[in-house]
Structure formats: C-alpha cells, structure tokens
Design a protein that fits this description.
It contains 12 helices and no strands. By secondary structure, the chain is an all-alpha fold.
Length: 246
C-alpha cells in the first residue's frame, strides 16, 4: 500500500486538474489551495477508515458534498459561492456532530432525551455545550469546547460576508482576487485565512467526535495522517489530546 502522503499528492494533482478550473489562479495560489484540499482529504480518510467510518453515516454525505462543491467553486473563481457553500457545510456538520454525540450517548443510556434542533446556529451551540458536558472532560478536551464556540464566531462572520451587497457575483476571471474586496469585503489574505479557519473547525469537531477510536490508534499512523493538514506542533498537540497525555 502506498504511503498516505503519496496518495494525497496523487489526489491533489487530480483535484487541481479538474475541468473548468482556473489554471493561472491555481498556479499562483497553490500552497493555499493545497491546505484546503489537505483538510478535506483527511476528513475523507477518516470517513472511510475501518476504525472510524462508524461515525459517518449517510447523513454526513450532505456535509461532505458541500465541502467538495465549495472547493470546486473556489477553483472556478466563484468567491462568494465558495464561501456560501462552506457556510452551509459548516452548518450541516455542526448539527451532524451533535446528533452523533447524542446517538452515542443514547446507546449507553436509552432513557436520555434531548431538545430538538432547529435552524438557529446559536441555539444549537448552547445545546451542544450542554449535551456533551456530562460525557466529555472539559479539561482534557478543552479544545473541543473552544472549537464549538469558534464555529459560531466564524459562522457569523461568513454570514455577514455572503449576505453583503455586491455587483460581481460570481467573478470568473483568473485575476478575480484583484476585485475580491468588492465581492466579499475581504482581501486575498483574509479570504484564505477565513476559509482555512472554518475548514479547520469543521475538521476539529469531527476529530473530537472520534475520540474513543482515535485513543486506540497507533500514534505514528495518526501523526502521518494529521501531518498532511497541520504543522508538527499542532499535530502533536491534537494527538496528545485524544491520547489523554500531557
């Protein structure tokens, strides 16, 4: 079997050579695009891995499809579209992870009852924090609790951007970042920074959802997986959290 990083490189080449993508844009922003693809790649890896795929049922398909559509919109020059799809993916994933946590809890205690979820992200956040408190150690998994809160912060920012007025939807030229501010009220660096942060928070919720399985993983395998998307320090920190080590 090929090393995971080799598979990633192969799949990334396929990704940036999809039909109708903007080649000049990809060439000048390849490192940023690679970060985007890296995060989606490891989400897909965990989704299909024998040890962790039980956390991803058919209802997760919507979240993953939205992530793929958002990344394709990015490569084809649809700035606002890519952020709108990313926000939809974030919203779908937020509810999905909470519903999975609830399902796992009910497997241990079928008598548990939970408040219904609605479309309001802020209300879901309150229920999220309340529901996991009895089962998730807020010291060991403090980063999980922080990610739940950060997701709401970035969701609000995305909402403000995708609902802002614009006369350029979508911008289809390879130079579209020259007009990015008018389209999204973000400059190029801010755009990618926000995109990466939202993707990171989507991943983190899924990562901590899988904590019971990941605790049993070989640290070397987990390191090589996370290293595709994160730096060495961040990778080691995430491993220590699920392993329960300081």
């Amino acid at each position: 079997m090929k090393p995971l990083n080799d598979i990633f490189q192969f799949e990334f080449e396929k990704f940036i050579n999809l039909k109708d993508v903007k080649k000049e844009f990809i060439s000048s922003n390849q490192s940023e695009i690679k970060k985007v693809f890296g995060c989606i790649f490891i989400i897909n890896f965990f989704k299909n891995r024998v040890e962790t795929k039980r956390y991803y049922n058919s209802e997760f398909n919507m979240t993953f499809s939205l992530l793929l559509e958002s990344s394709y919109a990015l490569l084809s020059g649809q700035c606002r579209g890519s952020l709108l799809l990313l926000r939809s993916a974030q919203e779908a994933n937020y509810k999905y992870v909470l519903e999975c946590e609830r399902r796992i809890m009910k497997e241990h205690d079928p008598t548990l009852a939970f408040e219904a979820l609605d479309y309001r992200f802020g209300e879901t956040q309150k229920k999220f924090l309340k529901d996991i408190k009895p089962i998730v150690n807020n010291i060991q998994f403090n980063e999980y609790y922080k990610s739940i809160e950060r997701n709401l912060t970035y969701y609000k920012k995305l909402s403000g951007i995708v609902h802002s007025g614009s006369a350029n939807i979508p911008i289809m030229s390879v130079e579209y970042f020259s007009n990015l501010y008018q389209d999204t009220i973000l400059n190029k660096d801010e755009f990618f920074d926000l995109y990466h942060k939202v993707l990171n928070e989507i991943f983190l919720l899924n990562y901590f959802l899988m904590r019971e399985s990941l605790e049993k993983w070989d640290s070397y395998v987990l390191y090589n997986t996370l290293r595709i998307s994160f730096g060495d320090k961040r990778t080691n920190t995430l491993i220590k959290i699920v392993k329960g080590t300081k």
